[in-house]
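Section 3.1: Structural characterization of target chains.
Under the original work plan, the team committed to producing a structural model for every single-chain target entering the pipeline before any wet-lab resources were allocated. The record below documents one such target. The sequence was received from the expression subgroup and is listed exactly as submitted; it comprises 355 residues.
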Amino acid sequence: MNGLTSCEHHLAIPGLIGYGVVGDDKLDPDQSRPITPDENDEVWVAKLVPDEPAFSPSAAPRRRIWTSLATVAISLFSILIASLVMRGLAIWVLGTEPLSLEQFVDEDGLRDALKSRLGLFLMVVVPQFGLVVPSLLAAMLSPVPFRERLGLVRGHWPAWAWIAVAAMTPLVGLASTIFSSMFMQESESLREMSEIFRTHGQGGFLVPLALMIGATPALCEELLFRGYLQTRLTRSLRPSIGIVFASVVFAAFHMDYVHALGVLPLGLFLGWVSWQSGSLFPAMLGHFVNNALSVLMISFAADIQPESVPLTAIAAVLAILACGMMGVVGVVIAAVLYGSPIQSHCVVHLDPIHS
């Protein structure tokens, strides 16, 4: 049973009275045969009905998916345009010469611009907002309420489960990084970006950098991929297909095959969390903690050599493992206690029917 139809079936509740009701057939619970109640008997009909609008793959009729795919394509075009514009702006603001095509394609000049705090903000942070604007506009035009369309609702997981997600997400990211490093070397673009983060982190900009790199993707990427795309796909397709598809698109948007394969498990986990919890907020929180912690570890790991790993690095890894395992326990408990989105958004209404 899918959608609201799964909440519309009458249930037999013999424990309430001597017999139950299934549809319009009155059954004797002891003899499993239709009976006719006296005219003074009161029959109770139990019906599962939605408690509140659910951020659920089955809480709405099936919809077209081409609009979601078109929005993703527009978002790709938007972030590319925003990146080019911000690149030119950074070169113009930070450069000493008039902007030229040679400066625009000069990789050494671009790396120098990224070493500036203003250049980093313009070229890395600002384009993220170009990524999310099309999905925000599409959500505003949707007949579904804006917050529900993007999953910006409370959901049915308690606050402690959100904290468990935040604790578990870095463990997922660490495990994915270790696994991918066994088969692939770090790409040149990732090494360069890590060096840029390390330079800023060791230059007294560590906390703002961690907040900036943590918060911007957690907001913009989650709104597009889990908030807009996944909610649409899981309502139009099977939840598993919608989660996997949105996660693959999320990974592909990182524009680096090594990085994409590394973040794919993270995308799958956050996609499952947002669907299972009925809210985008836990995924946002987990994404933020993972990115911010990654920046901190990159900055502190500047001079680590394999033969002499400092105690601080060992302690950091052990802390991620310990918190991550506690997060795993919390997430599993939340998933078991609070069930699927369909179960959590249906309540029993009892209506008396007099024969």
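The two ends are 30 Å apart (CA to CA).
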